[in-house]
Amino acid sequence: INQSDRLQELLQNFDQVLDSKNRDTTAIPTLGLALTVEASPQKTAPLLLPGTGEEPTSCHLKDILLPLLASAQVLAQEKTIQLLIDIPNHLPPVKANIKALTEVFSNIIDNAIKYTPVGGKISIQSLQKNTDFQGIAISDTGPGIPKEDLDRLGERNYRGVQANTDIPGTGLGMAIAKQLIAQMQGEIEVFSPAVEFDSASSSLPGTSFIVWLPQLPHLLNQHPL
């Protein structure tokens, strides 16, 4: 089962907890960091997320992304979507929870493929914010996100205009992703229209998701040749 499938299973289990009649505080035995969400006016249900119990460690973003991009390439080809990848070798390492970060990237890439129309493009490139943060920008030529939805992105169960489409979703993915990255001392920025991609050839505005993570000093941990 791939990373995206595991996240979807996690979200489905979470919805079942919220819909349960007794609404007791329940721990879902999934992969998980604990996210506490409101299950009733009086009680809460903790959701276990990818990476629970794992300390952030030194890792290289390209090592995490390459296996995901290999799978994404297959799905993209089915929709004649062009994947444009620009991630240099030998970038300094970042500090992250590898299992949780893998789930976050998998969810964002999976959504980019879902919402990008046939013949569109998806760009995945590395960015630098001074010497403290390293980023990965995932941009697409999809329908974009209205401003009123951008302001509420990350709210549990809120899907905005996407709720009117036939693309499945729970509205939980970005809420979970933002909390996971925040626990790594990073952040996720979302822009629509896309800002890190030349979408001039597209009639749709597109969206950019930028995942920022704290960068470790380059000389302390060189990437192996």
From TrEMBL:
<dbReference type="InterPro" id="IPR004358">
    <property type="entry name" value="Sig_transdc_His_kin-like_C"/>
</dbReference>
<dbReference type="GO" id="GO:0000160">
    <property type="term" value="P:phosphorelay signal transduction system"/>
</dbReference>
<dbReference type="InterPro" id="IPR036890">
    <property type="entry name" value="HATPase_C_sf"/>
</dbReference>
<dbReference type="InterPro" id="IPR050736">
    <property type="entry name" value="Sensor_HK_Regulatory"/>
</dbReference>
<keyword id="KW-0902">Two-component regulatory system</keyword>
<dbReference type="GO" id="GO:0005524">
    <property type="term" value="F:ATP binding"/>
</dbReference>
<dbReference type="GO" id="GO:0004673">
    <property type="term" value="F:protein histidine kinase activity"/>
</dbReference>
<protein>
    <recommendedName>
        <fullName>histidine kinase</fullName>
        <ecNumber>2.7.13.3</ecNumber>
    </recommendedName>
</protein>
<keyword id="KW-0808">Transferase</keyword>
<keyword id="KW-0547">Nucleotide-binding</keyword>
<dbReference type="Pfam" id="PF02518">
    <property type="entry name" value="HATPase_c"/>
</dbReference>
<dbReference type="InterPro" id="IPR003594">
    <property type="entry name" value="HATPase_dom"/>
</dbReference>
<feature type="domain" description="Histidine kinase">
    <location>
        <begin position="1"/>
        <end position="217"/>
    </location>
</feature>
<keyword id="KW-0067">ATP-binding</keyword>
<dbReference type="InterPro" id="IPR005467">
    <property type="entry name" value="His_kinase_dom"/>
</dbReference>
<keyword id="KW-0418">Kinase</keyword>
